[in-house]
Specification:
Oligomer: single chain
Helix content: 10-25%
Strand order of the largest sheet: 11-12-13-14-10-4-15
Radius of gyration: 20 Å
């Protein structure tokens, strides 16, 4: 799952505290405005937190995300009219990536959809959740109920040792080890009922834990008492997802981009590509069949200077694209970026240049993810 940094647009609105606000401050977190909330960007340092998550386990507070539950008669049919998802293949205990699109096929948000008993559970981006709820409410029939779970927090425990730390504190309907990537179950931690999905936004194995807001501090404390676990801020979350080649809504995705340009064709489930019946289907199917004028690609840059969002990409003297996300990779010890470029320059290995601080830096179109994913799909 992704988010849109609204730091430049929150000066005139009151920022909401997270359920763990005091907990973060007690641990020395540097708090910044993000998606209408005050959120921790770092504790001991972005690079140290990034590396800890890659090697051990990091606890992220993502309670700003929107947790929604949809229920009612004809639920699957109603939701399929809004999202390009095939709900006939989404079984109880499974979750799937999907997209909220406008009528022109532009991306309004990316989100996760899970099959609960007689309901669907959605996790949407924090900065777009109010707009998403408005879009869904307008598009869904009146007999579909939408509940915003504003009394719940969301924690993400990510990294290769996350399963060991979390398993010491969970009991539930199945062993934690039975969950594979994109599966979820009901569990208890420290006496609290929680829902745990094996998923995340770092490219590492990990879990997302939905729990009552009043239990968040106790559960966070229990987990961070384990030697493998440290609290991790938004800075490392961003560098981890960049290395994992995952899009960030509001930067790599927007109403000006289509999922096909962004390489998210997998988010348009196979049956829906044939049947259509969702917003923007005509454009989506045309682009699947005919291709697009531009593509979202990975870039590796020479030297040490990172390219940031908005940097222009060139092939010779011709501007052929724009960077949407970029930074210095702690794992690779090199600058990496993602950009939309003209399709004729999008092949892996194509030499390009990126303009940074008035200088042209050599870059090469690279496969993504830059760092291989380590999701747990089973033994």
């Amino acid at each position: 799952m992704s988010d849109h940094d609204t730091e430049d647009h929150v000066e005139d609105i009151a920022l909401e505290p997270l359920p763990l606000d005091a907990w973060h401050r007690e641990r020395g977190a540097r708090m910044v405005p993000f998606a209408g909330y005050e959120m921790p960007i770092q504790y001991e340092g972005i690079v140290a937190e990034h590396n800890w998550t890659r090697e051990s386990a990091g606890l992220f507070d993502v309670s700003h995300m929107g947790q929604l539950v949809l229920s009612g008669p004809g639920l699957d049919e109603a939701v399929e009219a809004v999202l390009p998802i095939d709900l006939s293949t989404l079984k109880l205990g499974q979750q799937r990536y999907s997209l909220l699109l406008d009528e022109e096929g532009g991306v309004l948000d990316d989100l996760m959809v899970s099959r609960w008993p007689e309901a669907l559970y959605l996790v949407v981006n924090g900065a777009t959740k109010w707009d998403d709820m408005g879009t869904l409410r307008e598009a869904l029939p009146d007999d579909i109920t939408m509940n915003y779970l504003d009394d719940r927090a969301l924690l993400a425990l990510q990294g290769p040792k996350a399963v060991d730390a979390l398993a010491r504190h969970t009991t539930g309907e199945c062993p934690l080890s039975a969950l594979t990537f994109m599966k979820f179950g009901r569990f208890r931690i420290a006496g609290h009922d929680v829902t745990i999905a094996r998923a995340g936004y770092t490219g590492e194995d990990g879990f997302e834990i939905s729990l009552p807001a009043e239990a968040a501090a106790e559960v966070a404390e229990v987990l961070c008492a384990e030697p493998e676990v440290k609290p991790i801020g938004l800075g490392a979350r961003d560098s981890l997802r960049l290395e994992a080649g995952l899009p960030l809504y509001g930067h790599d995705l927007s109403p000006e981009t289509s999922p096909i340009e962004a390489g998210l064709t997998f988010g348009i489930n196979k049956r829906r590509r044939t049947e259509g019946g969702y917003p923007g289907a005509d454009r989506i199917n045309r682009e699947i069949a005919e291709g697009t004028a531009r593509k979202w690609v990975g870039l590796k840059l020479e030297g040490r200077l990172p390219a940031r969002e908005g940097a222009e990409v060139f092939a010779g003297s011709e501007k052929i694209g724009t960077v949407t996300s970029g930074g210095f990779s702690p794992t690779l010890q090199a600058p990496i970026a993602m950009a939309y470029v003209a399709t004729e320059h999008a092949a892996i290995g194509t030499p390009l240049e990126v303009e940074v601080r008035g200088k042209r830096l050599a870059a090469t179109v690279s496969p993504t993810p830059f760092v291989p994913h380590r999701y747990f799909r089973g033994s």
